[in-house]
Design brief:
The protein is built from 24 helices and no strands. By secondary structure, it is an all-alpha fold. It has one domain.
Length: about 475
Amino acid sequence: MPTTSQRPVARLGLALTHWSEKWFPDPLVFAFIGVIAVFLLGTLAGESPSKLAIQAGKSFWVLAPFTMQMVMVIIGGYVVASTPFVRALIERIAAVPRSPRTAILIIALFSMLTSLISWGLSLIFSGLLARAMARRVKGLDYRAAGSAAYLGLGVVWAMGLSSSAAMLMATKSSMPPSLYAISGVLPLSQTIFLWQSLATAAIVITISVTIAWLSAPPPAAARTAQDLGIDLTPADTALGTPRTPGEKLEFSPVLTVAVCLLIFVYLWDIFRTSPNGALAALDLNTYNLIFLTLGLLLHWRPRSFLRAVNDAIPATGGVLLQFPFYAMIYGMISGTGLADKLSHLFATLSTHQTYPLLVAAYSAGLGIFIPSGGSKWIVEAPYVMQAAIANHVHLGWVVQIYNASEALPNLVNPFWMLPLLGILKLKARDLAGFGILQLIIQLPVVFFLCWFFGQMIPYLPPTI
């Protein structure tokens, strides 16, 4: 238990960790709660219970293409983070700190910076970095290090290049027709590359790193990986030697280089010929292809690449299992009159000035039950965008309000922790206490920034 000699922020973080270790359930429980909650909301709003159930069942597979795209984000991030080049970089970074607090600060910073490139990369890179730090830095609280490694997913990932909502709005083929009819396509220049968005990301990263540094437990109160019975021995990365002609092909980089060259030619043509500029060509499919190709090239040999993919597959189980239940929620809202009622409610309760705060609060609250930024955006985007048009709020900034606020519940919802937990050999309840501390401080800051910057951006009507 925390002692009175510890820093106040560290004492609070440890107290919340002890609470979460006892009370936190499995991520699937949150998804089930979300399904039941929306069903009850629909019946209270006057919708037929049988119609709600039918629409939920009809929509069970509607997010299958998007689910596969999210799976590929995880795999792409994993194969890049597990390359020899990146592993060597991790070891060099891990050799820098000399104290537990500095180690946690560095883990937190790299977790958030890499999440702006890819949340899949951030989870794996930060998990491997936390393990490397724990091997080198004496007295490092392994739970705090793991929580710092998760900050990219819990604070800022949705403001970066792998933002599911921003990428979806920039990808017509991924958008449900009903959503496209409302907003049209929004290029990344109107969402994540707004200067207001970049400023928001910089502010929340600074605050989050500071909290992680202040809340790091001192060595006397720390629970190290050894205390938790976790083996930190690095995994064997040796490929062995080829013994048959078939295996020689698996070890040869010739095919790897040839395939990568073909893909690079295709990618160059996409960006070169995009009618609306290079940013407009960067959608989910292109983004995933870039990461997979980069991972293939950095692994160099097909066998190394295949092993990384096989290692990544278990981390995708949560996405494959839970996304269909989020699709049920989408079906109950979009397939009944509930979407129109929610849109009318948003338009009635908000004005141009108050709309950002209302959307931020709603998106953060819904994120407790639907932790996926992409599938949740599909659920709420139709009525949120309609209300934004009614209140003359910039549609791109609405996406960023959503991105900034919906990430925060990830700090306490264990769904996206799963790939990281597999690397760290921890449980979600081990990280949640420090996440709750971050949430308490970040929530009012993010809400204020959503409102403040929202007053500066002029409204642009949708172009369809």
